[in-house]
What does this fold into?
Amino acid sequence: MKRASAGKAWTFCEIRPDVIVGFVPQNNAMNMAQGLGLYFSLYQELHGAGAEVSFPYGHEAWEALHTDSSADILARFHVFASMHPDLSSERAFNVADGPPFAWSALWPRLAEFFGLRGTGPTGTERNLGQWVRDHQHEWDGFVAKRGLRDGALAATNFEFVDAVMGIPFRRDYDLSARREVGFTEERDVFEGYRIAFEEMRMARIIP
It folds into this structure.
């Protein structure tokens, strides 16, 4: 990119998100919010409000720090970088919502949004993708009963959700570079999920 832009009127920068959390109206296979939204919705339907839903991976993944990236914050940094080439040119930036967090802090809050009680690993984990496959035959009736749009479950890559959520080591981003150039917007990581879930509800992807 440096060679290609040398002497030209354009420049570039590299923007690196962590796992992107957002709403996609026509589905997206690598969509963490959609995978979790579908899982919690079906779990609540089958087990009832207030049911306990344990984290479906190991203790290492439960406590490993990471940094998710809300789609709208990521988009705003793209705009910021394009409007400030004097600050961003030929640099790389990690972009995420804010300070590192672990599933141990987020999982109970996500579960509560769906009327469930989120708890830690039990030692007898069955990953999220396997649970969905085991209950896939119940999805069509759930969609019909709740008046939801067809196709979301089949279009979601639960292997991706499993692979990301089951990571057993710390992988959080250093966000200092974006702060250095003046982009200081942050949010509680739960808010990114909450916004995506609310948009999924409005689109009738989840009830």
Summary: The longest strand covers residues 14-17.
